[in-house]
Amino acid sequence: MSEQAQPQFGIEKIYIKDLSLEIPNAPQIFLERENPQIEISVHNAASPLEQAGLYEVVMTVTATAKLGEKTVFLVEVAQAGIFQILGLPPQDTDAVLGIMCPNTLLPYAREAVASMVTRAGFPPVMLQHMNFEAAYHERLRQLQEEQAAQAATPG
User: Fold this and answer.
1) CA atoms in the 13 A half-sphere facing the CB of 13
2) Opening angle at CA 23, ends 17 and 25, nearest 5
3) Domain 8-152 class?
4) What residues form DSSP beta bridges with 31?
5) Going residue by residue through the chain (155 aa), what tens digit of pLDDT does each one get?
6) What are the residues whose beta carbons fall under 8 Å from the beta carbon of 90, sequence distance 6 or more?
7) Is the pTM here over 0.90, yes or no?
């Protein structure tokens, strides 16, 4: 009987890779009484490290608050982690990197964004829960459609 390696998942390190805050219209913006419109964008990227089975996953969250055309603040956090993933086929590894790792990083990114906005003198911005599984499957569907379109295009 041959023994297969058991799948393994581990968190090696969680850290902030990059953090920035801009308040381009300070101090005048603090005199405004209107509530700004806040836009949140999230981007995930994963890359293998030199050591087999280790991956860096970076979740970049950008929170932009605007009053009309004026930017109230812009916060960008690149929350990162080093994860160990062993014993999985490539498609399952890709799913872990696209779903499980971002789910692990989200609470850290949420805290970093809320903390930075509060330290800047504004009420905290709380990131809502995100469905990374749905986003992952949507990305796969889009890739399949693009590949099908390329295959159907005469060369």
Assistant:
1) 9
2) 160
3) alpha beta
4) none
5) 445 678 999 999 999 999 999 999 999 999 998 999 999 999 999 999 999 999 999 999 999 999 999 999 999 999 999 999 999 998 899 999 999 999 999 999 999 999 999 999 999 999 999 999 998 999 889 988 888 888 887 76
6) none
7) no
Alpha-carbon gap, residue 128 to 110, rounded angstroms: 8
Cβ neighbours of 132 (radius 10 Å): 21
Token pair in block for residue 15: 């850290």
CA 101 vs. chain centroid, Å, equals 9
Q: Per-domain residue ranges for the chain?
A: 8-152
d(CA 35, CA 125): 12
Q: Please tell me whether residue 35 adopts helix, strand or coil conformation.
A: coil
Q: Write the DSSP assignment of 66-108 as a string of letters.
A: EETTEEEEEEEEEEEEEEEEES--HHHHHHIIIIIHHHHHHHH
Q: Rounded to whole angstroms, how far apart are CA atoms 87 and 84?
A: 10
CA pseudo-torsion sign 74, 21, 101, 111: negative
Count the residues in the chain.
155
